[in-house]
Amino acid sequence: MTYCVGIKLDAGLVFLSDSRTNAGLDQISTYRKMMVYEKADDRFMVMLSAGNLSISQSVREILQVEKIDNPGGEPITIWNAASMFDAVRVLGSAVRRVYDQDGPSLKQAGIDFNASMIFGGQIKGEAMRLFLVYSAGNFIEATRETCYFQIGESTYGKPVLARMTTPATPLAEAAKRAPVSMDSTLKSNLSVGLPLDLLVYERERFASDQLVCIDEHNPYFHMIRSTWGQKLRQVFESIDDPHWDGGTTAHPLCVSSARFEPMRKITHAGEKIV
User: Fold this and answer.
1) 33 with 4: CB under 8 angstroms?
2) Tens of pLDDT along 148-181?
3) Domain 3-232 part of CATH 3.20.20.70
4) At the N or C end, where does the chain have fewer CB atoms within 10 A?
């Protein structure tokens, strides 16, 4: 399995992916989930992938040469698309091409066609955009209300993103928050693992040199893992304990609900709660 996250901010984009792939407890391998497409001073795009590895690898290979019809003009590719919307349409076409090629055989073998991608970047002349692409090749776009996407094992890493991430979040802060999200996932799910790929893109640059591979020896990630756990414990310990005896407290627990009654106990076999 995997965990990937893409964040769209006013100042730029942040992408983070793990690299673990497994096909059972004794078949764990390392495969990069991030692909970067860069054409100097013209376009910068990143794709993160999750799901069946053979499907995502085929999509990545086809994407570089995939074309879609453009009435009255040359076919559209990711290299000449006038917008990120057209570029993600090319990605969707590549997904459907792999489905047409491999889908029937996978179905016959009892294997689901399972793949999802985060695709984002910027093409000169328009704003940055971020998309989530499904296994049917359809997609949705990030908005100001939902400015990040996750794929793979997204459950454990979501709270830190959901509570604090907005379009106004500074890039440096998001580049710190994404690894914290990943650390929460690593703590809870063995199917996600190091090394990680972290990329930060600054708006209107159409290039990025802020790209790093993070392994278990990385001092910054080691600091995040230890500091985040320590600070969580400190915050938890600072929260008041619940008071059950009605004692004096600023935050009483045992108060009557205006709508609901307390749970009733069943005390003998013939009693029912309706």
Assistant:
1) yes
2) 999 999 999 999 999 999 999 999 999 999 999 9
3) no
4) C
